[in-house]
Amino acid sequence: MSLVTLVSFDGHSVTVPRDLATYSTTIRVLLSTADEQQEKAPAVVKFPSPLITADILDEVVRYMRFRKDHDGQVDVPQY
Q: HSE (CB half, 13 Å, CA atoms) of 46?
């Protein structure tokens, strides 16, 4: 299983499976950029915006888990 480390602007990090991280379009785009820059290095996505704090990043991960767990079962809100 491939893992991705997401790092908030204030330095909080969360490691998640890559397939979970790709439920976010923004993270998917940032991952493709990271992949181009770091061939074979572990995937790390650092959010440059001060709006992405530890609390926000935790909510994003919670939302991605919800989307993955309920994919196709319920009407999941898109943000």
A: 5
